[in-house]
Design a protein that fits this description.
With about 350 residues, the chain is α+β, with helices and mostly antiparallel strands. The chain has 11 helices and 14 strands. The chain has 4 domains: about 110 residues, 2-Layer Sandwich (N Utilization Substance Protein A, Chain:P, domain 4), CATH 3.30.1480.10; about 60 residues, OB fold (Dihydrolipoamide Acetyltransferase, E2P), CATH 2.40.50; about 60 residues, K homology (KH) domain (GMP Synthetase, Chain A, domain 3); about 70 residues, GMP Synthetase, Chain A, domain 3 (2-Layer Sandwich), CATH 3.30.300.20. The strands form 4 sheets. Strands 4-5-6-8-7 form a 5-stranded mixed barrel. The chain has a 3-stranded antiparallel sheet with strand order 1-2-3.
């Protein structure tokens, strides 16, 4: 009984799986097949040997002893016991082992291809959606997008093409698992890199991103070339570049903010489109922002969204007040001390 070694050599050349790896896997599979077909799985051990020159297969039966505590196996006796009708089983086993190794090699190749791409962007076609995942077909493999990484109220229809951000790549029994996101702030960065050549070239730099997925985002940009306007580069001619990003995010509004190391100026910029009168930096990482009365609601934004995003972008607590509120605070009489409770809140 022989194994066709030429087939194994072909697999080694064409798929890059080493000959020795295939032979060793086949020897283990043949030993298991011997025990299974002979009904000896519970009582005996076995060892199969494939001659590397001829492909000849020899099976050795083993008398074994198993330590009940450590489960260590000791071979007490061994003898040749190659079944006369083992050729068909050997051929079938060889085929199964080769197919299994090819599948494993493809999985390893796919994992290697994507494991270094965490933080990158991929384009996929929506294949399936249920309560656990939306599945994207990436071509060679699939990506999983859990509900926590999906934009609220965004519908993913079968066959739709969309871009997503690779959050994690991990190994599993079924192959590599690629977890992607539509909500991650990194998706905004990558989309602008695709649309704005100045970012890829390093002329324009994205300093920060604050995002409420599906609603609004703010990005802070700076230029490393005094002749290049970072905001204008990201907006594009007649808003063409930022519009492409917004379209990919299905209408999510994006404010592009000029970054500066002057914190007061940066806070004022971050509250765009509101016009800020004054920014006072207070203790405890707080910025008091003063705006005209008619700008107050715009500065705060719908349900406080504009103020929240500005706070995330700048890393400060942002307290917004109108000029009228500032005047009222200044004109309010200071609380008077009353006996032993002097200094307590009135």
């Amino acid at each position: 009984m022989k194994i066709p070694l030429d087939s194994l050599r072909d697999v080694e050349r064409e798929r890059g799986i080493s000959f020795e790896t295939l032979v060793e896997a086949m020897e283990k599979a043949l030993a298991s097949a011997y025990l299974r077909t002979q009904g000896l799985e519970e009582t005996r051990g076995a060892r199969a040997v494939i001659e590397r020159d001829s492909g000849e297969v020899t099976v050795f039966a083993q008398e074994v002893e198993v330590d009940p505590e450590t489960e260590e196996v000791t071979v007490l006796n061994e003898w040749e016991d190659t079944p006369a009708d083992f050729g068909r089983i050997a051929a079938q086993t060889a085929k199964q082992v080769i197919l299994q190794r090819l599948r494993e090699a493809e999985r390893d190749l796919t994992f290697g291809e994507y494991s270094g791409r965490e933080g990158d962007i991929v384009t996929g076609i929506v294949q399936q959606q249920d309560h656990r995942y939306t599945i994207l077909d990436l071509g060679k493999t699939e990506a999983l997008m859990p509900p926590s990484e999906q934009i609220p109220h965004e519908r993913y229809e079968h066959g739709a093409r969309l871009k997503a951000y690779i959050v994690e790549v991990r190994k599993s029994a079924r192959g590599p698992q690629i977890i992607v996101s539509r909500t991650h702030p990194g998706l905004i960065r990558r989309l602008f890199e695709l649309e704005v050549p100045e970012i890829l070239e390093g002329v324009v730099e994205i300093k920060g991103v604050a995002r409420e997925p599906g609603h609004r985002s703010k990005i802070a940009v700076a230029s490393n070339d005094r002749n290049v306007d970072p905001v204008g580069a990201c907006v594009g001619a007649k808003g063409s570049r930022v519009r492409m990003v917004m379209n990919e995010l299905r209408g999510e509004k994006i404010d592009i903010i000029k970054w500066t190391d002057n914190l007061q100026e940066f806070v004022a910029n971050a509250l765009s489109p509101a016009k800020v009168k004054e920014v006072r930096l207070l203790e405890n990482q707080t910025a008091l922002v003063v705006v005209a009365d008619y700008q107050l609601s715009l500065a705060i934004g719908k349900e406080g969204q504009n103020a929240r995003l500005a706070a995330r972008l700048t890393g400060l607590r942002v307290d917004i007040k109108s000029e009228s509120q500032i005047r009222q605070d200044a004109e309010a009489p200071s609380p008077q001390p009353q006996g032993s409770e002097a200094g307590s809140k009135a």
